[in-house]
Design brief:
homodimer; 465 residues; Aminopeptidase; 2 domains; nine-stranded mixed beta sheet; four-stranded antiparallel beta sheet; globular
């Protein structure tokens, strides 16, 4: 076989690949909403059937939450063994009214950039990316009857909802899942046409806080001024989380374990990376709003932050209601870098709330996951061939970059399986991940699939003939 | 006729009165929700039919919003003429899950105080109170074939939703609506069994502010830190509205026109009024949370305040979503006293927001009504006989008190018709007005009806026997 036979198979099979992706996108596998549990299982079953049909031994594995998908295919004797990780679950779709087409009825549309776009919830995150790898395996098998190396796939269903069952699953199945390197397709490129491998990922701590004052909703005329207003209490607490002038998080000890960016990396990013206006312009912003003294790219790639992801209390509909509510709620997340300790930060947040809680109020907390930042050593031997393979496909040097998002599995794989990960993804900043009208460029899907063919070929130690 | 014949008619007719009240309570006349516009009209029609059957000339009158109900019945030649004002519209019912029975299926239940309670949205505010007056008129007519004085009723349908159509209606119908005194039944008693006439009412300014940052929802991993978070901006703005230490509103000029409480009134309220623990204990609170240096009663009766009545942004459902929303919204109200100017305070609030708005953000505002505080002169000649009539019914001295709520009609009647109002109501602090499980004590309905019989008789200049 030759590499080019497999790449041709990708090209000629694109329509069929796309059809399969659409089938998967039609399954509304929203993991955080209990009503969609059967859909999560349906997505897992779809993957098992698909991989089985391709010749993998594939099965779902039960967890206390949504099932895992595990599949194996052996390569030639002595070839390396890779573990591919992805997730089949997706984010909720609200606000539904902002979608131009139904989130689970995928369509191919002409995007404003001139690219064809696959539009659906999960198009980029992560079903589209998972399918680039699966379709690459399909093309390699088609070209040569077998894969150039041994492949295990682990596709989970709780990445978007805390993912507490992944680490126990890894720990319970170390023999089966151990490989030479993990491959993860859940990240982005440096920009359109600019391939990249991500080596720094932020960790995350999610917290929900509910402030309760009176034992029922009150009339704000009768009680306003005298009765404690939990929305006001919550706003005071949230306002105190960040210093308005410096943009820094105020929790004591928050910056413990946050490394300085080394000047060389900083200079490189300054050269190849987008400016603040370029990063933020497409979403209607112009200035890096976070920690002052850092660019937008630095703020998201290698500086920690605190975000309010949701807030709710009182009357939120149209019109006005003079209510003084009994409760108010906020969902808060912290993005972590370096060796910041998620549980120490969770404790510091709760102490921050308790210290600001007036008499007559109580605070309740719900933990929504916690994971450390992930660092991939840039010395790992699989990195150079993978970068070279990407460069060959995109005809652009492949960059080593950071990523603001959290992919806890990187740390969990290191911890449970003792393996490092190569994070190779084909997402773009304008993919509207987690937002209405999520999309994945057709060219990212197509060239992403071709990229994996080249990367697997290169990791197998073969010359690109 | 004698007063006692009419009072007996109230007693023997109580079951029938209650049945009529329940009929009115079954109509879900929520004025702030457009879907309930037909129900508002149905409530107006029900009142017209009921008053017509009692011998009033009664009709609905169109406005740009919900219709007004106007009815007239003549008393003896030379008798005084009163204008009764009430409202048939009610507040929204959310959160519905907290109701023990359906809000528009009124029931009579044994309350925790040992009193029988009429439970339904509008039971106290204001359908139950309106019906005390109507049923008093019925008993007086039944006892003597006619009323002891001339009565005009004006019952509106937009009190709970800004009420912008009332003043133009008053101004357009001054000849028809002009009387010697206005009677308003939309306030409370000093406590269970303690009758009162309210002479101070706070005004109100309602504002909604929407902060917009990015042009779409963003992934908080990809953009968190760099992209401006409108929830954070909103919380900073809200936190700055009040001084945490003094509880005072920080808007420049906010306290212009706020009178000091006179020491005599203060001493009287300190003697007859409830303590902070008594006022706030029933709702699960113990400390007056507002402007320091004032009791809970003073904070609500004669000090201005700022309350957040609703807040919303990002992901508010169960679970967690790492979204950085494009928008966040708050509904804010200010309660006004003395001569505070609603429009000056609205402008100061908007300036407060604009001054704190970071680059890349915009603020949009929606005005939700504005009215000055109302003061009834304690020198008006109708006040002493009304106080005496109440004392006769309740066998307790009737007090002159303040009220934290806003009843803009008092000022509007002064302005358009040049008349003062007697605010006589039978609500209690534990009526859960604007909250789930709103109720009106059966004894308040019954003795309230009897009270109006006595008050109308007294205002007609007749001796109670």
């Amino acid at each position: 076989m030759s590499l080019h036979t497999a790449l041709s198979a990708v090209d000629t099979g694109l329509d069929a690949s796309l059809k399969r992706l659409f089938d998967l996108l039609r399954i509304p596998s929203i993991s955080t909403q209990a009503a969609h549990a059967p859909d999560c299982r349906a997505a897992a079953n779809w993957l098992v059937d698909t991989l089985h049909d391709m010749g993998f031994t594939a099965s779902t594995r039960e967890t206390p939450g949504h099932p895992m998908v595990v599949a194996h295919a052996k390569g030639p004797h002595g070839s390396p063994h890779v573990l591919f990780y992805g997730h089949y679950d997706v984010q909720p779709v609200d606000p539904l009214t902002l979608w131009h087409s139904a989130p689970f009825e995928p369509v191919l549309v002409d995007g404003p950039t001139g690219e064809k776009e696959i539009t659906a919830r999960g198009a980029a995150d992560d079903k589209g990316q998972v399918m680039t790898f699966i379709e690459a395996c399909r093309a390699l098998k088609q070209a040569d009857g077998t894969l150039p190396l041994s492949v295990t796939l682990l596709i989970e269903g709780e990445e978007e909802s805390g993912g507490i069952n992944l680490l126990p699953f890894l720990e319970a199945n170390t023999e089966e899942l151990k490989a030479d390197v993990a491959l993860i397709c859940d990240t982005g490129m440096l920009g359109r046409g600019l391939p990249a491998i991500t080596t720094m990922l932020r960790g995350m701590v999610g917290e929900e806080v509910i402030i309760t004052a009176a034992n029922r909703d009150l009339h704000s005329g009768m009680y306003g001024n005298a009765a404690r207003n939990p929305i006001q209490v919550l706003c005071d607490i949230v306002a105190d989380l960040r210093d308005g002038a410096t943009g820094r998080v105020t929790l004591p000890g928050f910056y413990d374990g946050v490394p300085d960016i080394d000047p060389q990396t900083r200079a490189l990013w300054g050269k190849i990376g987008p400016s603040d206006a370029q990063s933020l312009g497409p979403v209607g912003l112009s200035l890096a709003a976070g920690e002052q003294g850092y660019t937008a790219l630095e703020q998201t790639w290698c500086r920690p932050s605190c975000e309010i992801n949701g807030i709710s209390g009182g009357y939120e509909e149209n019109g006005f209601k003079t209510v003084l509510p009994a409760k108010a709620m906020a969902k808060v997340s912290f993005r972590l870098v370096g060796t910041q300790d998620p549980e120490a930060i969770r404790a510091a947040f709760r102490a921050h709330v308790q210290a600001r809680l007036p008499a007559d109020c109580t605070a309740d907390f719900v933990a929504h996951g916690g994971s450390r930042a992930s660092l991939v050593p840039t010395t790992m031997p699989f990195l150079p061939p993978a970068l070279k393979a990407l460069e060959a496909e995109w005809q652009q040097p492949a960059a080593v970059i950071g990523c603001g998002g959290s992919i806890p599995v990187v740390t969990e794989i290191q911890q449970a399986l003792g393996m490092d990960s190569l994070l190779i993804g084909f997402g773009l900043d304008d993919d509207r991940v987690h937002s209405p009208n999520e999309k994945y460029d057709l060219s990212c899907f197509h060239k992403g699939t071709r990229s994996w063919v080249r990367v697997l070929y290169a990791l197998a130690g073969k010359n690109p003939d």
